[in-house]
Amino acid sequence: MILDYLNQNKDLGEYISHFPNEENFIHQINSKSANNIDRSLLYNVIKAQNNNISLSEISDKNIELLKYKNTFTVTTGHQLCLFTGPLYFIYKIASTINLVDRLRTKYLQYNFVPIFWLASEDHDFKEINSINLFNQKIDWDSDQSGAVGRMILEGVNSSIEQIQNILGDSDNAQRLINIFNKAYNKNNNLSQATRVLINELFGTYGLLIIDGDDVLLKQQISDVIENDINQGRFYNIIKKSSEKIAIKYNAQAYVRPINFFKLSNDKRIRITDKEDVDSIIKNPQIYSPNVLLRPIYQEMILPNIAYIGGGSEISYWFQLRDTFNDLLLPMPILVMRNSVVLLDSKKLKKIKNLGLDVSDFFLEINKLNKKYILKNSYQIDLSKEEASMKEVFQSIKDKLEDPSLISSLNAIEKKNLYAISTFENKIIKNLKSKHDTQINQILKIKNDLFPNNELQERHDNFMPQYLKYGDNFIKKLIFHLNPLDTNFVILDLEN
Predict the structure, then answer these.
(1) Residues 409-437, buried b or exposed e (16+ Cβ, 10 A)?
(2) Which of 197, 323, 376, 459 fits a disulfide with 451 by CB distance 3.0 to 4.6 angstroms?
(3) Cα–Cα distance measured from residue 400 to residue 402, given in angstroms and rounded to the nearest whole number
(4) What is the domain range of residue 432?
(5) How many degrees, rounded to 5, is the angle at CA 20 between CA 17 and CA 23?
(6) pLDDT digits (tens, 9 = 90+) for 167-184
(7) What is the mean pLDDT of residues 308-333?
(8) Which residues contact 124 (CB under 8 A, 6 or more apart)?
(9) Share of the chain above pLDDT 70, in %
């Protein structure tokens, strides 16, 4: 489904607003201009939420710009991962800032502001409480439950101490430790800490951070809350869309008759029955949308024209087009975040010396080794011999009339072809032993680029790169990660 979307398959047109290219953003701007956003409220809330952190001059300016009708936002969001979690957390933000810069250049008559939406009401603590750092797992042990953004930060300091011991005492290491101490040791909960952390890393680029767990913002969607819980307004709409998508693709998210949770300080409870209308009106902050209605909430609050997310995120937005239409709410342009493999000049040189390309390392390790052996040994590819053997057997079959004889010959053919394949593997194994050093080099590079056979961006944290390159790491990402270019990015951080 995502591949079809990136290829701008017209069959997906009915599930989106516009495909993501620069020319289409003017149509999205026009649609959003006609949508009434309470800009005064948005300005006051963001001002208040960020009142206690040190904002850059450009961030302060961006807050002021939100007052004006010619200002639009580009938004991304994520769970409140400990120390930012995997690399793609960073890539999402860098992609967002880059897109804003491009739109500013393209549409000079408008203002564009990058937004990070804190997914503070998520309750899956196990998904956010650990990171991988130099092949060591750093955990935050806590028995808290409920919305993760409300969790107090008791115990995080021991994780910071672990990180400090690993990183050492270089200038960049000290910079990171200072940021972590500022974020996690000087704030009351995980939401506040994550806000400070993101601002420290990206604030100089004007990124604004908003938390949906806010009573004033929730008041803006009290009708949506009541319509969903008490009237089931959205269930059939989303269900119908999901079923239509499922004919050709998989529907990413499961719609329920009620798509809100109820929040308390330590619980996030699924609502299964109707709620008192007065309770919804007076206390909207205790109601939390699930994954399908959170986008609706976001788009009712922000003058947003684009959302940048991963493949699974974008997929569940497809289920919502008819819901947006039902609410007369413009659906934003959905933009796939950039995917990246990070390299340095040393690794690139090794790959070149091996006679391989970076793209080769996307192969499964046995196929990668075979490719190297084939390129660096006598000819052992037996595909021509296999083809010749098939021709011989086919020639014999053409002379036969008895089906039982043909069946017997097929079995013999299969056995012989298997023997050739097995013998080819024996040759490769023999040659591997003569290239032990190179094969070990290939394995090490493969493990660096795809640790535990995962994409690097899903496994590694940003700290090793920041340790080497400091703020230049962030600058490089923002410069190179253009989300309107859907190619996988191979990034040499030293050039």
Answers:
(1) eeeebeeeeeeeeeebeeebeebbeebee
(2) 459
(3) 6
(4) 346-454
(5) 95
(6) 999 999 999 999 999 999
(7) 94
(8) 79, 148
(9) 98
163 & 301 share domain:
yes
Compute the Cα dihedral for 276, 280, 282, 285 and give only its sign. Answer: positive
Q: What is the pLDDT of residue 56?
A: 96
Report the pLDDT value the prediction gives residue 434, as an integer from 0 to 100: 64
Q: Tell me, what DSSP letter sits at residue 482? A: -
Name the token pair of 464.
């090793």
* CA 131/CA 176 separation, integer angstroms: 15
pLDDT at 47: 96
Note the pLDDT tens digit of each residue in 447-480: 999 998 899 999 999 999 999 999 999 999 999 9
| CATH at residue 167 | 3.40.50
Residue 256 DSSP SS3? coil
Q: What is the pLDDT of residue 380?
A: 61
Residues 75 and 173 placed together within one structural domain of the fold: yes
Q: How far apart are CA 467 and CA 487, in angstroms?
A: 27
**Percentage above 90 pLDDT, the chain:** 73
Closest by Cα among 145, 146, 87, 149 to 117? 149
Q: Look at phi and psi of residue 391 and say left if phi exceeds 0, alpha if psi is from -120 to 50, else beta.
A: alpha
Q: Are residues 445 and 311 in the same domain?
A: no
Residues 303 and 366 in one domain: no
Assigned domain for 494 exists: no
Which residues have CB under 8 Å from 226's CB, separation 6+? 275, 277, 280, 281
pLDDT score of 377 more than 70? no
Asked if residues 43 and 302 have their Cβ atoms less than 8 Å apart, the reply is no
203 neighbors 55 (Cβ within 8 angstroms)? yes
The pLDDT-based confidence of 337 (bands split at 50, 70, 90) is very high
Q: What is the pLDDT of residue 433?
A: 67
Looking at the structure of the chain, the number of domains it has is 2
Report the candidate in 158, 121, 154 with the shortest Cα–Cα distance to residue 139.
Answer: 158
Q: Is residue 490 part of a domain?
A: no
Query: Rounded distance, CA 213 to CA 119, Å?
Result: 9
Q: Which two tokens stand for residue 309?
A: 């997310």
- For residue 77, what is the DSSP state? E
d(CA 437, CA 440): 5
Spatial distance between the Cα atoms of 268 and 122, rounded to a whole number of angstroms: 8
pLDDT digit string (tens) for 107-131? 999 999 999 999 999 988 999 999 9
What's 355-371 look like in SS3?
CCCHHHHHCCHHHHHHH
